[in-house]
Amino acid sequence: MFQQARWDEPVIFKLGSKGRRGCSLPQVEAEVSKLANRVVDELPKAMKRKMPPNLPELSEVEVVRHFTRLSQMNYSVDLGFYPLGSCTMKYNPKIDDLLAGATGISELHPNQNESTVQGILEIMYTLSRWLAEITGTAEVSLQPSAGAHGELLGVLIMRACHKFNGDAEMRTELIVPDSAHGTNPASGTMAGFRIVVVPSNRNGCVDLKALKTAVSEHTAGLMLTNPNTLGIFEEDIAEIAETVHSVGGLLYYDGANLNAIMGKVRPGDMGFDIVHINIHKTFGTPHGGGGPGAGPIGVSRELAKFLPIPQIAYEEKRKRYFLDYDKPESIGKIRGFYGNVAVLLRAYAYILSLGAEGLEEAAEISVLNANYLVKKLREIRGFELPYAEKRPRKHECVFTAKPIFKERGVRAMDIAKRILDYGMHSPTTYFPLIVDEALMIEPTESAEKEELDRFVDVLKKVSSEAYSNPDLLKTAPYNTTVTRLDEAKASHPKTMALSWRMHQKRNVIKDASP
Amino acid sequence: MMQQIGIKSIDELYADVPKKFQLKKKLNLPKSMSEHEVREHVEALLRKNKSCRDMPSFLGAGCWLHHVPAAVDNIVQRTEFSTSYTPYQPEISQGMLQAMFEYQSMICELTAMDVANSSMYDWASALGEAVRMATRINNRTEVVVPKLIHPERYATLQTYVEPLKLQIKSVSYNPETGLLNLENLKHQISEKTAAVYIENPSYLGFVETQVEEIAEITHDKDALFIVGIDPTSLGVLKPPGEYDTDIVVGEGQPLGNHLNYGGPLLGLFACRDEMELIRQMPGRVIGMTTTMSGDKTGFCMALQTREQHIRRERATSNICTNEALCAVASAAYLALLGPQGLRELGEIIMMKTRYAMQELAKIKGVKAPLFKSSHFKEFTLNFGKTGKTVRTLNQTLLKRYGILGGKNISREFPELGQTALYCVTELHSKTDIDQLVQALRNVLGRKR
Question: Residue B285 and residue A149: Cβ atoms within 8 Å?
Answer without folding.
Answer: no
